[in-house]
């Protein structure tokens, strides 16, 4: 019973405390309104303001992205046949030109020998036609056909030799065998996938920059790279590509080439952060982004002139987050209006709240 009485008393006291706080807050607001009325500014527009001042500007920024391999190639067969040898496995490091596998070349070798025999026969026929032409035994057209036949059989021999050479599957690039799609003894057709080779000796970190950031970037600029997976290792790179067109999010794709470590610690698909550092910038006159009427492109702001607003045309420069550089139209110390501009025209009576 005593407990219920105590709870009731606490509830009543809490209610009185809340009522007292609300009354005090209303009293403060009424005092502010009374002050405005007494100053003769009852019809004035309440605005926030800030002085235009020179501030230190930093254009450094960072951007997150994923690492892509320098080269990623899926090797396919150019000949049909049975795989007789496989010399590498997944994870094997290979060099450009290294033999990876071999296709049964018996039929291909037969084609080469046939082409050689046809070329030899065509060459002998040409000799006979040339000898007969001197004595008038054959016409010029017959001689020309014999010469054309030799050229055709030479081309067929070259084609047969190329196909025979293609029986040896070699690596077109240096890298690591990421996937192996065939087994020894399996039969493959033209175009069947054999190996996926990935070159991660160098990687490309694909990031984005907005329109204000991309104007400060140039191909060849050095970039510091960080990876959360290897916090103790510093990676360095350089910009190799800046897109001339923004993507659907109005950002510009940027590629940074990164040299991998000796042990290839970085893997394609990992996350990385590109740190774009620039020389220290001179202090510049700036105002909040909200000072502009409508948008920055309007180049219109209002300044406080006593108790009145004055429209001012300015020249906006670079945008640094929530602040905008002002190149012309303002001087240091001018009081710019940062809110309430929608209700203002030149000469409107205003009252400064902040």
TrEMBL record:
This is RND family efflux transporter, MFP subunit. Keywords: Coiled coil, Membrane, Transmembrane, Transmembrane helix, Transport. Residues 206-274 form the CusB-like beta-barrel domain. Belongs to the membrane fusion protein (MFP) (TC 8.A.1) family. The chain crosses the membrane at residues 6-23. One of its GO terms (cellular component) is efflux pump complex. InterPro entries: Beta-barrel_RND_2 (IPR058792), MdtA-like_BSH (IPR058625), MdtA-like_C (IPR058627), RND_pump_MFP (IPR006143). The lineage of its organism: Bacteria, Pseudomonadati, Bacteroidota, Sphingobacteriia, Sphingobacteriales. It is found in: Cell envelope. Pfam families: Beta-barrel_RND_2, BSH_RND, RND-MFP_C. It comes from the Bacteria. Residues 112-163 form a coiled coil. Residues 80-199 form the Multidrug resistance protein MdtA-like barrel-sandwich hybrid domain. Residues 287-340 form the Multidrug resistance protein MdtA-like C-terminal permuted SH3 domain. One of its GO terms (molecular function) is efflux transmembrane transporter activity.
